Amino acid sequence: MEGGVHEFDGSTFRECFSLSWRNPYVLRLAFSAGIGGLLFGYDTGVISGALLYIRDDFPSVDKNTWLQEMIVSMAVAGAIIGAAIGGWANDRYGRRTSILVADALFFAGAAVMASATGPAQLVVGRVFVGLGVGTASMTSPLYISEASPARIRGALVSTNGLLITGGQFLSYLINLAFTKAPGTWRWMLGVAAIPAVVQFFLMLFLPESPRWLYRKGREEEAEAILRKIYSAEEVEREKEELKESVEAEARERSSSEKTSLVALLMTTATVRRGLVAGVGLQVFQQLVGINTVMYYSPTIVQLAGFASNQTALALSLVTAGLNAAGSLVSIYFIDRTGRRKLLVISLAGVILSLALLSAVFHEATSHSPPVGAAETAHFHGGALTCPDYSSRSSSSFWDCTRCLKAAAASAGCGFCAAGGGDKLRAGACLAAAAAASNATARDACRGEGREWYTRGCPSRYGWLAMAGLALYIAAFSPGMGTVPWIVNSEVYPLRHRGVCGGAAATANWVSNLAVAQSFLSLTDAIGAAWTFLIFGGLSVAALAFVLVCVPETKGLPIEEVEKMLEGRELRLRFWAKRRHHHGGDGDGGGEKTGGV
Question: Which residues span the membrane (predicted)?
Fold first, then answer.
């Protein structure tokens, strides 16, 4: 959004909703484009549940965590490319055309994945979806912004963010709905084609962005659209402002093209400090582990001791709901509390929740149920016994954790919990891939009404882990979830905002890819407890970074943000108000919070 963050007060939203009867055309533009945000959220969230059933259908995926990570992270890799190409396509072919292309990519990706016969086809489908996500992530809010009346632009653009988190929540609902359907994951992934088709046909009958048309010299078309958006007395003023804005943008672009990012870092202290704050926040947003929760939430629930796919999906719905609710909380508090204070409070909660998760997983691993020799031999006379357990020394102690670790070196082992309702008693360590009397170990275990574990072990601490996950999302979403994007819209000088904003967004996607591609490998190599402890350490580093490097930009014009960065005032007492002196007749005096 140009010019920083818009105020989101009650009157703005009331005016926004009153459009439903005064000028429904504007809402039609905004919500038609906003479906792109819904698709963005759905396609990033749906894989978390689908992956549980993909593992069941494709043994190669179940045995290789790197393949699971690839299926998840290829969408992120596609999004990096899609965002880069999307910026060029937006300028060259327009916002509407770019949205139509994104819809075609979403549809193609959903069709390829729903009909996949192997992991390779799933990866290809995820790349198509990622290209669509990258294009939609920048095009949908841009189209809404440029086709909305200025006084309610912030409220309408914010609907795109709400639709992203809403799409993630919807994906968890859809996952849960199809757990009993034949084809499970195929339906989960294929449903995304429906909103893509709906948006495609809606956008066919909507106009191009008036700003883009004006930039291309198609002023009459732009004016015709403006007359549908604004009242008659507002059109002339808007035309004049549009003309001035486009001319200023052209001047800015011509000067920006002569300035590379490296040159800015070497010569401009203000931009360098702004980039440190903006890029650093985007990187830390990912390094504190948010997308491990959004991409792998049901898997984390299973690591906590809930074996059932349905239970894992149902409990994951809580995290998705809290994430969506956090977006609303952020809108309310961002201009009341301030950016830095909200970040500090958010990170404090994230650190606390990650410490709790690390402790819970450590206790669960240290006190997992033992493996009983009699329990294991009970299944088909020992024919299903895990090979590593069969060759153990007589003095060695085996529990569920050791059984699951042996799976990496053998044909694939799982733990069959004790029956009778007490899953913490001694269970059986079985070879998941072995067969006897045409029955796999998993089927044999479940056939006796027992729980089958291949990810985590039965634990009395499972609900504590769920509380830790809920606290993590509740703390992250209102602060670290939204504030990095807001700070990046405020902290760069207008003339360099394009190149700096692009660098920050790229840093976010690349960090996202690194986390998505490494999480399962880390949990396999060092365990969930140490993995969450690493994220906790990175969160502590993020808190120190915010206190030292991130300025408070609440209520400050861009010019004053630049002066603040030039002065580089270090202010660790983030809770204290700073007296801001300004000359002239002012706007009524009072205090503004500022400082770094």
Answer: 29-54, 66-88, 100-117, 123-144, 156-178, 184-206, 312-335, 342-361, 461-487, 499-520, 526-550
Q: Which residues contact 77 (CB under 8 A, 6 or more apart)?
A: 127, 130, 513
Measured in whole angstroms, the distance separating CA 419 from the mean position of its chain's CA atoms is 39
Which DSSP string do the residues of 171-182 spell out, in sequence order?
HHHHHHHTTTST
Q: Residues with Cβ < 8 Å from 382, sequence gap 6 or more?
A: 376, 390
Structure-block tokens of residue 30: 């905004």
Domains belonging to the chain, first-starting first, are 10-205 (1.20.1250.20), 266-367+458-567 (1.20.1250.20), 368-457 (no CATH)
> Tens digit of pLDDT for each residue in 200-229?
999 998 888 887 887 777 878 878 887 777
pLDDT at 586: 40
Query: Per residue in 179-201, pLDDT tens?
Result: 888 888 999 999 999 999 999 99
Tell the residue number behind the tokens 């992530």, with chain if given. 137
Helices (H), 259-305: 261-267, 269-287, 290-303
Cα distance between the two ends of the chain: 23
| Residue 428 DSSP SS3 | strand
What Rg value do the Cα atoms of the chain yield, rounded?
Answer: 26
DSSP, collapsed to helix, strand or coil, labels residue 170 as: helix
CA 278/CA 345 separation, integer angstroms: 19
CA distances from 461 to 371, 389, 535 (A): 19, 26, 20
Report residue 308's pLDDT band, with 50, 70 and 90 as the boundaries.
confident
Write phi, then psi, for 439 (nearest 5 degrees): -125, 130
Q: What share of the chain is helix, strand, coil (3-state, %, to 5)?
A: 70, 5, 25
Spatial separation of the C-alpha atoms in residues 496 and 499, rounded to whole Å: 6
Looking at per-residue pLDDT, the higher value among 265 and 180 belongs to: 180
Q: What does residue 408 show for φ and ψ, rounded to 5 degrees?
A: -70, -30
User: What backbone phi and psi angles, to 5 degrees, belong to 427?
Assistant: -120, -165
pLDDT at 242 over 80: no
- Amino acid in the structure at residue 503: A
Which residues, listed in sequence order, are joined to residue 275 by a DSSP beta bridge? Answer: none
Cα 497 to Cα 2, 132, 153, 253, 487, distances in angstroms: 10, 24, 20, 10, 12
Number of neighbouring beta carbons within 10 Å of residue 513: 21
Lookup result for tokens 């449903």: 191
